[in-house]
Amino acid sequence: MMMDEDVEQATLVSYSDKPRTFPDMRSKTYSPLIIRILRNLNVRALSVLLLLSFGGIFYMGARTSPIIVFVFVVCIISFMLSVYLTKWVLAKDEGPPEMVQISDAIRDGAEGFLRTQYGTISKMAFLLAFVILCIYLFRNLTPQQEASGLGRTMSAYITVAAFLLGALCSGIAGYVGMWVSVRANVRVSSAARRSAREALQIAVRAGGFSALVVVGMAVIGIAILYSTFYVWLDVDSPGSMKVTDLPLLLVGYGFGASFVALFAQLGGGIYTKGADVGADLVGKVEHGIPEDDPRNPAVIADLVGDNVGDCAARGADLFESIAAEIISAMILGGTMAQKCKIEDPSGFILFPLVVHSFDLVISSIGILSIKGTRNASVKSPVEDPMVVLQKGYSLTIILAVLTFGASTRWLLYTEQAPSAWLNFFMCGLVGIITAYVFVWISRYYTDYKYEPVRTLALASSTGHGTNIIAGVSLGLESTALPVLVISVAIISAFWLGNTSGLIDEKGNPTGGLFGTAVATMGMLSTAAYVLTMDMFGPIADNAGGIVEMSQQPESVREITDVLDAVGNTTKATTKGFAIGSAALASFLLFSAYMDEVSAFANVSFKEVDIAIPEVFIGGLLGAMLIFLFSAWACAAVGRTAQEVVNEVRRQFIERPGIMDYKEKPDYGRCVAIVASSALREMIKPGALAIISPIAVGFVFRILGYYTGQPLLGAKVVAAMLMFATVCGILMAVFLNTAGGAWDNAKKYIETGALGGKGSDSHKAAVTGDTVGDPFKDTAGPSIHVLIKMLATITLVMAPIFL
Question: Where does the chain cross the membrane (predicted)?
Answer without folding.
Answer: 41-61, 67-85, 124-142, 154-181, 202-226, 246-264, 348-372, 392-413, 420-441, 480-498, 510-531, 576-594, 615-638, 686-704, 716-735
